[in-house]
Amino acid sequence: MVPSSCPSPDPDAVAPLAAPRAPGDSDGAPRAPGDSDGAPRAPGDSDGAPRAPGDSGPGDSGGAPRAPGDSGPGDSGGAPRGKRRRRAVIAALVVVVAVVAAAVAALLVLGPPALRRHIVAEARARGVALDPGAIDVGLHAVRLRDARFSLLGVRGLSGTVARTTIALRELAPAGITADGVELTLVGVDALEGLPAWVAQHGPRASALPLTTGRVRLGLRDRDGGPEVLALTDASLLRRAAGSVQGAAAPPPGAPRPEVGVLKQARVLVAGKEVARTDIAWSIGATSIALGFGGEDVPSAPLRAELRPLPSPSASIELAPTPLSALGALLGVDVGASTMVVSGTFELRLAAGADRTALSEAPLEGPIALTVKGFTLPHPRELDGLLFGDTTTVKADAHISGDRRRIALSAVEVAAGALKLKGTGAIQREGTDAAIGMDLSGSIPCSLLAGSAAMSHLTGAVGLLARDLASRALAGSVAVQVRVDARASRLTAARVTPSAILRCKIRL
C-alpha cells in the first residue's frame, strides 16, 4: 500500500495502472514497498523517498534531523544503539538464568551431602552429636525428619526427634521448632555429665530460640532394663534464668543456668500413670535442680538438687505440704487427711562404691521427716505421754545398687515423751512399695502410771493420783511397735503395739 500523505518525487512520471507482475520483473509497474525501482517507498527505504527524522539509510548526507544518539552518515550496521543495549541486557539475563539453573541443579545433585555435613557441624559446635535423618530444603527453613542425637561428653543420654524445623536467616540458623522429642536416660550417668555440658556449651546452645511439643523423657536403671520412670506428653518451655523469683544468682563470671519447665507432664511409674503436673528444672555449672509441682524450682513443694562434683550427691527437700496435695502429686491415696508433711533426704555414694559405675552404685544418707497432725495409735492411758500432734522420724537409708530396696537403720520415732528406735525397710514392687518397721523403746513406770491416772481422773484428784503413782512405782515398760504399710495407701497403715511390764513398787 502506497502512503497517501507523501507525494511522488516526480508527479509527471507516474505510469498508468498496469497489470501486476511477479517479483523480479524489471518494467515500470508499481511494486510493493521494498522494491528497488522508483515506486514510492515506506519510511526507512534506502532510495530518495522522504524519510522520518532520524532515519539513517545508506547514502544519507546528514541533512535530515536525527534523534540524539543515532549514528551519522556512513554507519555500518544501521541498528540503533538502544536496540543494541536491549540485546545486551537480554543476553546478560540469559547468562544469569543459566547460572541460577546450574546452581539449582548442583544443589539438587550435590547439595544434600554438603548440607548434611553443614548441619552436623553446626550441631556439633553447640555440643550435640546429630544424625539429621531425612532433610528437606526450603527457601527459609530446613526440615529434618527422624533425627537422632546425643550430647557430647554426657553418658547415658540419647534422644530422637520426629520433626525438626530450623528457621534460616541469611543461611544461618535463627530458631528451632521440634515436635515428638524423646529422651532416654540410663542410670544416673547423664545427670553427672549435664552440668559440665551446660558450662561448656550452654551459652551457645541456648542462643537459638527453641519451641517444642510432645516431649517424652524415660529413665531406666540400666541399659536394656525396664523403664522405671517416664514423663510424657509435656511441652518444654525454656525460660531466662533471671526471670525465676527466688533463684540464687550465679557467682560472678559463672555461666547462667539453663532454666525451664515441662508443662503438665504425665508421670508414669513402671508404666502406670500416677500424676500429671509441672516439673521445673535448672541446670547450672555444678548442679541440677528439679521442682515437682511448680513452674519454677524455688516455689515447687518437692525439690531435688543433684551435685556430681567433687563426689556425686543429692538432696531432696519437701516443703511443708498438706499430705493430700503431696498424695495427688505422687499418685498416692491418702484420703481426706489434714496432716502436713515436711522433710529432707540426703544421698551420697555408699562407702566403697565405685563412682565410675554410678548407675549401679549403692547410695546412702540420712532421712528426716516431720508429720504435723499425726501421733502413733495408742490407748488413752498413754495420752499423757503422747502429747501434742507432731511426730518426727529420723533414719539412715541405704539404697541398693538395683534401686529396688531401701534399708533403714538407726530409726528414731518421737511423739511427745515417747521415743522409739529400730530398723525398717522399703521394698519397691512395681509402681508400689511395701514399708515395714520394727520399733522399740521403754517408758518409765512412774510416767506411765501418772498418764493413766490423768486419763481417768480430772482436776486436783487426778494430779494427786499422778504424784502418788509416780512416787510409788519404779522400773520401766518395754514397748514394741510393728508398722506395716504400702506407699499407695499410707492412711491404711497397720500399727501393732505391744508392751512388757517391768514395774515394781518403791519401798
| Count of strand segments | 20
Number of domains: 2
What global shape is seen?
A: elongated
The run of helices and strands is: HEEEEEHEEEEEEEHEEEEEEHHEE
Uncertain runs = 1-76
Q: What's the N-to-C terminus distance?
A: 157 Å
Strand content: 35-45%
Overall residue-averaged pLDDT value: 75
Helix content: 10-25%
| Main beta-sheet strand count, sense and barrel state | 20 strands, mixed
Please provide a written account of the structure:
- By secondary structure, the chain is of the alpha+beta class.
- It has 2 domains: 91-241 and 256-309, no CATH class; 311-507, no CATH class.
- Helix content is 19%, strand content 42%.
- It has a 20-stranded mixed beta sheet that branches.
- The longest helix is centred in the first third of the chain and has 45 residues, at 81-125.
Summarize this structure briefly.
This protein is α+β, with helices and mostly antiparallel strands and 507 residues long.
Strand and helix map with partners:
Elements: H1 81-125, E1 128-131, E2 134-137, E3 141-151, E4 157-169, E5 172-186, H2 189-205, E6 210-220, E7 227-239, E8 258-269, E9 272-283, E10 288-292, E11 302-307, E12 313-322, H3 323-330, E13 340-349, E14 363-372, E15 390-399, E16 405-415, E17 418-429, E18 432-444, H4 445-456, H5 459-472, E19 473-486, E20 489-505
Parallel strand pairs: 5-6
Antiparallel strand pairs: 1-3, 2-3, 3-4, 4-5, 6-7, 7-8, 8-9, 9-10, 10-11, 11-12, 12-13, 13-14, 14-15, 15-16, 16-17, 17-18, 18-19, 19-20
